[in-house]
């Protein structure tokens, strides 16, 4: 596989991760505002080119935000009393966060 395809697939997977995070965050009631703002921050990191920030630091910020979002969603799942519709969207948020962490770590390792 060429390197250009790998970079393109990584970008697509990270975008899908952000989409899953934002989709899950809009449907969850408890803690959704924090999840939603974290998803928006990840989208801003991914969309806008921040000139004053080094790429390594930007990737570290993405890793920290997506990992903390994943841990918060997992803790919400553990503390829930039953399995209802919001828990399904918390699982979607966890999957999106894990996808973001994996792809950001993979890109950081390539730098």
- Give the amount of beta strand, in percent: under 5%
Structural class: mainly alpha
Largest sheet: none
Taking Cα atoms only, what radius of gyration do you get, to the nearest Å? 14 Å
Q: Please, what is the average pLDDT?
A: 86
The count of strands amounts to 0
N- to C-terminal distance: 19 Å
User: Tally the helices: what do you get?
Assistant: 4
Helix content: over 70%
List low-pLDDT spans.
none
Per the principal axes of the C-alpha atoms, what is the gross shape?
Answer: elongated
The helix-strand sequence is: HHHH
Structural overview:
This protein is mostly helical and 111 residues long. Helices cover 83% and strands 0% of the residues. It contains four helices and no strands. It has helices at residues 3-27, 32-47, 55-79, 85-110. The longest helix is centred in the last third of the chain and has 26 residues, at 85-110. The radius of gyration is 14 Å and the shape is elongated. The two termini are 19 Å apart. The mean pLDDT is 86.
Summarize the structure.
The chain has 111 residues and is mostly helical.
What brief labels describe this structure?
111 residues; mainly alpha; 83% helix
Secondary-structure blueprint:
Layout: H1 3-27, H2 32-47, H3 55-79, H4 85-110
Helix pairs in contact: 1-2, 1-4, 2-3, 3-4
């Amino acid at each position: 596989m060429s390197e250009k395809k790998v970079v393109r697939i990584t970008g697509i997977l990270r975008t899908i991760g952000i989409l899953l995070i934002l989709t899950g965050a809009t449907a969850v009631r408890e803690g959704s505002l924090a999840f939603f703002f974290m998803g928006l921050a990840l989208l801003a990191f991914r969309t806008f080119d921040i000139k004053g920030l080094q790429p390594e630091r930007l990737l570290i910020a993405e890793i920290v935000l997506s990992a903390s979002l994943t841990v918060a969603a997992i803790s919400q799942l553990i503390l829930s009393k039953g399995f209802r519709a919001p828990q399904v969207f918390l699982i979607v948020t966890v999957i999106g966060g894990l996808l973001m962490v994996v792809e950001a770590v993979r890109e950081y390792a390539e730098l």
